[in-house]
Amino acid sequence: MNNSGDPKAALLTPCLCLDIEMLEANIQKMEAFLGQGPVKLRPHSKTHKCPTIAWMQLRAGAIGITCAKLSEAEVMAQAGIRDILIANQIIDRVKIARLANLAAYTDVMVAVDTLENARDLAQAAQQTQATIRVLIEVEVGMGRCGVIPGEPALALARELSRLPGLHLEGLMGYEGHAVMIPDRLERIRAAHTAMSILVGTRDLLVANGIPVAIVSGGGSGTFDITGVFPGMTEIQAGSYATMDAKYRSVGLNFGCALSVLAKVIARRDDDVAIIDAGMKAMTSEFGMPVVIQPRGWELERLAEEHGFLRRVGGSSLAVGDMVELIPSHGCTTINLHDRYYVLRQGRLEAIWPIAARGCVQ
Ligand SMILES: Cc1ncc(COP(=O)(O)O)c(C=O)c1O
Q: Looking at ligand 1, which atom is closest to the CA of residue 222?
């Protein structure tokens, strides 16, 4: 076990580290940007999966949080968080009943894109004597979930607003196909097209007498595009808080608070070293994690429990040497770990449970 005050070099590996000052700076930076305008922040907690970080974001000015799954929302609610958007469809009867229970003691909202699902939600809400708040999800070009914009969305909104037990709060549309476009101008163009679809649908609903209080969308790669788009009211960015190498590679101006610490456990020769962190500690769907310490080494491949490092100009490594890497994708890497080792100025300050880790239901 590690104790608070331990230096980074004494941490048992592999472990997931969080630089608290960097995390705080990222949270402040996002709030400083959005705090100036009418669009508010409802950060996505599917990235950090940690109620402590969610509370830091709320204390800094976020109006609520976003979750991907019901079980994630339940963890956040247990931590005392009330205003929660589940930015996904909940379609199973058992989960809908749980959602209705959650709605009885929180202000949970859920995304809906079919009338059938809305009817099931309404029935469960009535049985629990709760009101479930809903956002109609509009497909804005990502090709994932969401009702077709324009008339089909209006038809759904008309029917849905008549259902007892539901309260239609507004619309959401996620421009996930835009958030990681490396070219800034292209990213702006893609996000603007997506948000024009979403806000255009809002205008149609409003013109037909349906109030739309919330228009929600946006990720870390588009927070400063979607976050100033007229008609938007909320941004769902999540990765900005911890960051990762993928978002860094597209030029996002937040610091990498997250890293994985590993140790060299074997050497093949001067050019190849084996570390104790493999694909059970780091994911690679967005490319290999990036070695930041020591310099001159690259992660070539991941096996289940091992990582294969190759020398690209650095000094040779010895068994026992520490290696620090930035995950290529924070969301899926964090989900592999039980806890963050929270460091301030290179010393262990706290260990935070990643309480919603594995909450995929
Ligand atoms: C619905 C939704 N909103 C927002 C986000 C934003 O996440 P990020 O901050 O990682 O761009 C995501 C990411 O997948 C998402 O699925």
A: 11
Domains in the chain: boundaries: 8-16+253-353, 20-238
Q: How many residues does the chain have?
A: 361
44 alpha carbon – ligand 1 mean position (Å): 7
Same fold, 8-16+253-353 and 20-238: no
Best probe residue, ligand 1, of 26, 45, 46 (max atoms within 8 Å of C-beta): 46
pLDDT digits (tens, 9 = 90+) for 184-213: 999 999 999 999 999 999 999 999 999 999
Instruction: Using the structure block, give the residue that is written with the tokens 């976050």.
Output: 227
Mean pLDDT of 86-112: 97
Is residue 36 scored above 90 in pLDDT? Answer: no
Residue with tokens 């949270």: 27
Computed on alpha carbons and rounded to an integer, the radius of gyration of the chain in Å comes to: 22
Report CA-CA distances (Å) from 228 to 21, 34, 59, 340.
Answer: 27, 8, 22, 33
**Tokens standing for 200?**
């255009």
Query: Which residues are CB-contacts of 152 (< 8 A; sequence separation ≥ 6)?
Result: none
CATH for 20-238 is 3.20.20.10
pLDDT value at 1 more than 90: no
Looking at residue 179, what is its pLDDT?
Answer: 97
Ligand 1 mutation target, pool 39, 90, 174, 222, most atoms within 8 A of CB? 174
Per-residue pLDDT of 317-327, as tens digits, reads 999 999 999 99
**CA atoms 232, 233, 234, 235: torsion sign:** positive
For ligand 1, mutation pick of 179, 195, 226 (most atoms within 8 Å of CB)? 179
Query: Is the domain defined by 8-16+253-353 classed in CATH 2.40.37.20?
Result: yes
Residues 200-258: tens digit of each pLDDT: 999 999 999 999 999 999 999 999 999 999 999 999 999 999 999 999 999 999 999 99
User: 134: CA distance to ligand 1 center in Å?
Assistant: 18
Q: Rounded to whole angstroms, how far apart are CA atoms 36 and 40?
A: 9
pLDDT at 289: 98
Q: Residues with beta carbon inside 6 Å of ligand 1?
A: 44, 47, 87, 174, 176, 179, 219-221, 236-240
